[in-house]
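Lab notebook page, bench 4
Experiment: in silico fold of construct C2
Operator: M.H.
Input chain length: 396 residues
Purpose: comparison with the prior construct
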Amino acid sequence: MMKLNKTTFLLAALSIFGVKTYAQQLSKEQNQALLKASQGAIVKLDGFLTEKTAQIPFQKFPTPGPQYIISDDPEYIRVPEAIALKESVVPGSVRFYLYNVNGVVEPQKIDRKIIAMIKNTGKAPMRIKMLKYVTQKPSTNYFKLGKEGLASFFAAQPSEEVRIVKPGDAVPIDDKLEQYVVKYDELVHGFYEFVIDQPAEITVLQADLKTSGKEALKRITNVLPPKTKSGAGRGLYGVSNYHVNNTTIIDTKNGTSALVVADGVNDPWIIGREGTTGQQAKLAGNYGVMYDIELKWKSTDGKGLALITWNSRSADNKWCSGMAAAMKVSEGKFKEGIIQLPKDELVTKSAPEAVLIQVFKPSGKGEEQTIKLTYSPPGASCLPTPLILVPVDLNP
């Protein structure tokens, strides 16, 4: 899942040693193309996109959020039966991100099921209420699952159903996982947030199609080791939400600038604990972490701001050939809401392709305004995904 590149560290070094980045300027044709584009559309900006864009200085701090568990190490489960994750949680809210693949090739490729179970380890009946629920049919189209899953998570609403689990009993977190057939190389992608009122244990298992989750939990005891060659990480993390804001007001007169989070340098990876070994865990990519972003801006030259993104990692390796994301963005030229990026294509490939997220209009007297975004690093895509603010002439 996790794919970074050396350019992140190069940019940090350039900043440290005071090497100047250069400002991009749109041609009239590019300016017009952005203004004519629909939200989420791919716009070709030849010669414009670069990783040397001036970076927006920002500060971030964790905000109250759920206990966070991710199962993505090993990403590929290469043995027929095994436990891929086992973590204990306390009463309260829990966010759980499931990202595992059937990787069995020996003695042959076989169909499997990947199940997520939750066991009541308390002394009283446990109530479970789902706050956000996203389930998707397993697929080899990882970009599609990552983009659509994230958009669905942003849009999900709390369920009215409350499930009751007896002490010592276990139930599937997602009943549909019991029914899905996971073929070789297919990804099981689930995104959940729920509330429990008893301590519990969450386990992710791979098993044969005939074995129920309860049976698998009783029979399968071998736990796969973490820190394998694939996957972003696994474990329990205390940070699940960040607030981010710029420390210097963006002014359109100063040219193009970029907000870069989830790069592992200026925005370090969250640290937690891996339950089966007790060792420190690092989530390379901060996948599943929610970023509440507020950017202050003004226009002293009458221009607006176009918010775009692009696949800045396309040259790294074959795994970075495409990028697909989703985001919630405040109102501008287009209504406030959730947008898949790109909207009408599966992925954006590489420069000169940019994806238009929103266009913000200047206030009449150049007063300060606020752009609000809900962002989370998109699963299956290389990171970081820069958020670029480009001054645009709205009356060319």
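Observations: Residues 67-237 form one domain. The longest strand covers residues 92-102.
Next step: discuss at group meeting.
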